[in-house]
């Protein structure tokens, strides 16, 4: 049995949304390298990194992330999960 992962227009849209978010983060917090931003996969990780790079307190970093993200999530959604990856039985 073969399970196939499907990616449609929404997958491409999600990638574009993530790129837009990463650009916004880079503009606001310029100490991050491109690779550091790409490797950051959750809003909580971003808060932790801001605390480490800028010496911010958690509440302040969280508030700034919440404002910038405005309900969006940093998690890439186009990544396959173990249940959707192609496999043979």
Q: Can you describe what's shown?
A:
By secondary structure, the protein is mainly α. The protein has a domain at 31-71. The protein contains 4 helices and no strands. It has helices at residues 9-28, 34-39, 43-54, 58-69. Helix 3 (43-54) packs across helix 4.
Which secondary structure elements does this structure contain, and how are they paired or packed?
Blueprint: H1 9-28, H2 34-39, H3 43-54, H4 58-69
Helix pairs in contact: 3-4
Class based on secondary structure composition and strand pairing: mainly alpha
Number of helices: 4
State Rg. Answer: 16 Å
Low-confidence stretches: 1-8
Q: Calculate the mean pLDDT score and round it.
A: 82
The succession of helices and strands, N to C, reads HHHH
The rounded distance between the terminal residues' Cα atoms is 6 Å
Descriptive labels:
mainly alpha; globular; 89 residues; single chain
Write a brief caption for the model.
The protein is mainly alpha-helical and 89 residues long. The protein has a domain at 31-71. The protein has helices at 9-28, 34-39, 43-54, 58-69.
